[in-house]
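Reply to dn_fold:

You asked what the input looked like. This is it:
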Amino acid sequence: MKKILIVEDEEIVRSNIAEILESENFEVIETDNGISAIKSLENSLPDLIISDIMMPGIDGYDLVKYIQSNPVTSGIPIILLTARSETRDIRMGMQYGADDYITKPFKANDLISAVKTRLQKQSNFKQKFDDLKSNISMYIPHELRTPLVSILGFADLIINNLDDLEKREIKEMAEKVKHSGLRLYDRIEKFLYFAELELNKTENKSIDKTQIDSMYVTNLLTSKFRNNDVSLLSIKIDEAELKISQDYLSRILIELVDNAYKFMQSSSPIIISGEVIGNTYQILVIDKGMGMTKDEEKQITAFKQFNREQNQQEGNGLGLAIVKNIVKLADGNFEINSKKDEGTEVKINLGLTS
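and this is what came back:
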């Protein structure tokens, strides 16, 4: 049975809400002010909170701020009650962290609908979080263990055979330790970035502006992939100002080119182009690599693709999933066309500032 905390100083209104909710088999806890609500939260956590805004002492806004500032309670959805339908009140409540609002007087059906909608969204989020935790345990052993084994193995060789090794051999082993360390760092960083995107924890940076041109893209990619054959990069970028943060744009380009390098099968160039088409900016990244089947394309956004049986899709999975999520946050469009053993074309459309 779902538990709901009601915070309302008017007894008639509070009793009315409680009666409606109990008729739908919800467990109800009643409090008449913000202080009582906080004390109640210290004893028992509800699945949802319904709070009036205008209350003496700690009002609804202050209560929302308290709930959001406490890691233990910050995940509880909050519905605010307001006697006024002014947009200022509604906007302020949402800004502080409320999930929804209901204007008094309200109909029973509207209250029940709002409560069930919020609880369902909370349930969906919890399921996503549980899936994330489950897949972390499947992703980490395979993707992180390989470079870690290499690091520990070469370090052990150096320690146990130091007197017998030449400087050249020590240097070679140290270089391999560094290489594996960078691989490990890259995988951890990429995984954490994707996890934040999946849980909608990253700030929406689509309102930022970034200037794109050939010099910016060339410097970014040649610096990032200096250990690869950068002569394979064919870059042709038209200048424009995009509605996206530099962090997001850089991540898109790096992930797409990294993917192309990982799955290339020949010395064919990796084509990176950008041009203004209508009122959008189109970025293309084309390679002649391994490609993907249609079934594999459909799994790009699924965290399940990190299962051990899909290891051959590393790169085609996590990197492209990051790109797709970023493009969605930036209100852009993502399209991929790939053929097995022939190559992949990724097309992205982003907004222009003017």
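Residues 108-160 form the longest helix (53 residues).
Hope that clears it up.
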